């Protein structure tokens, strides 16, 4: 944990230093120190350096860390709740539903969704998607077959994606349509201190709450009978977990758009490293996810500088082959066993 925390701090420092304009890491440290501690730290930097670091890059990098942590924790929680290692906010249609509702606000105005903001509409969309997936996938006795959950999620994901594409095609405002399209690919461009606080608070509180449910998550993963014998009301517990993960997902989608594979790959890697115990796995997933997305954000800014790649493109290009490697590795291990 402490080692990952140090790596995260270093990753944030390096990601803040590099971009279209490269600034020394020591200058980054002085700017941040001066902003936090005032005159205690000598302002040995130019106003331009301060503008780039404090006003532009640091909020973006911190938002990347928040989004990475949130996606990883949500992915790990969903995989436990539905007892499916392929569960992920994007694969289950949660993010697509959130994206569709937020796209309605951007293209048609907040009046179309009862005056809700993009974040509020995204939460409603995430919750609606979750309810629909559970309703479709529920079998006899309210039990969830893992295959049905994935199939229901994929179906809803394509459905909401189709509706979102229609909004883009039908929009009379080309700027709004372009904004939705770029946002759906995942983008942190335009992040600022005011836009950082809501996702940061929601992810932090949500992570603390979900970690406190670690023992119950462990019991649910083993089986419903085990959870019931431990005194857990499985249906009520699932509902609470899904509401919390929907809230986190909705806020993250509203803040950064669609960023795939983080919630799928990172929890798998963490389980390989620290085991299946969610009491330890969730905080490690948060740190690992934060590091991963911060480094991906850095790659997006330097790969085609001065242009910026959408975050979701790089996470898909990196995450898909890595997940295939994980599948091959687990298959080889099973054959060897």
From TrEMBL:
The chain crosses the membrane at residues 61-82, 89-108, 114-137, 149-169, 181-210, 242-270, 282-300, 307-327. Keywords: Cell membrane, Membrane, Transmembrane, Transmembrane helix, Transport. GO terms for cellular component: plasma membrane. One of its GO terms (biological process) is siderophore-iron import into cell. It holds the Pfam family FecCD. It is found in: Cell membrane. GO terms for molecular function: transmembrane transporter activity. Coiled coil: none annotated. It is a multi-pass membrane protein. The keyword RNA-binding does not apply. InterPro entries: ABC_BtuC-like, ABC_transptr_permease_BtuC. Belongs to the binding-protein-dependent transport system permease family. FecCD subfamily. This is Iron complex transport system permease protein.
């Amino acid at each position: 944990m402490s080692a990952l925390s140090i790596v995260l701090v270093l990753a944030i420092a390096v990601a803040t230093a590099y971009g279209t304009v490269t600034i020394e890491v020591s200058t980054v440290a002085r700017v941040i120190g001066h902003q936090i501690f005032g005159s205690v730290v000598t302002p040995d930097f130019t106003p331009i350096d301060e503008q780039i670091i404090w006003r532009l890059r640091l909020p973006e990098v911190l938002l990347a860390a928040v989004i990475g942590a949130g996606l990883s924790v949500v992915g790990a929680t969903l995989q436990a709740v539905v007892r499916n290692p392929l569960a992920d906010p994007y694969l289950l249609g949660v993010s697509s539903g959130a994206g569709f509702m937020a796209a309605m606000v951007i293209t048609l105005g907040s009046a179309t969704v009862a005056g809700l903001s993009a974040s509020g509409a995204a939460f409603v969309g995430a919750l609606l998607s979750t309810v629909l997936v559970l309703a479709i996938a529920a079998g006899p006795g309210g039990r969830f077959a893992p295959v049905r959950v994935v199939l229901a999620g994929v179906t809803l994901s394509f459905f909401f994606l189709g509706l979102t594409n229609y909004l883009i095609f039908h929009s009379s405002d080309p700027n709004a349509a372009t904004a939705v399209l770029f946002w759906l690919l995942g983008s942190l461009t335009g992040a600022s201190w005011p836009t950082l606080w809501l996702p940061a608070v929601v992810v932090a509180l949500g992570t603390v709450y979900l970690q406190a449910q670690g023992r119950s998550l462990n019991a649910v993963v083993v089986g419903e009978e085990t959870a019931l014998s431990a005194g857990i009301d499985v249906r009520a517990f699932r509902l609470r977990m899904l509401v919390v993960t929907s809230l986190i997902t909705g806020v993250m989608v509203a803040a950064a758009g669609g960023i795939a594979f983080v919630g799928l790959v990172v929890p798998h890697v963490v389980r390989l490293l620290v085991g299946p115990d969610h009491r330890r796995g969730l905080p490690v997933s948060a740190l690992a996810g934060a590091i991963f997305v911060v480094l991906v954000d850095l790659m997006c800014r330097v790969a085609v500088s001065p242009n910026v790649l959408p975050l979701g493109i790089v996470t898909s290009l990196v995450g898909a082959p890595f997940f295939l490697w994980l599948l091959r590795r687990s298959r080889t291990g099973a054959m060897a066993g």
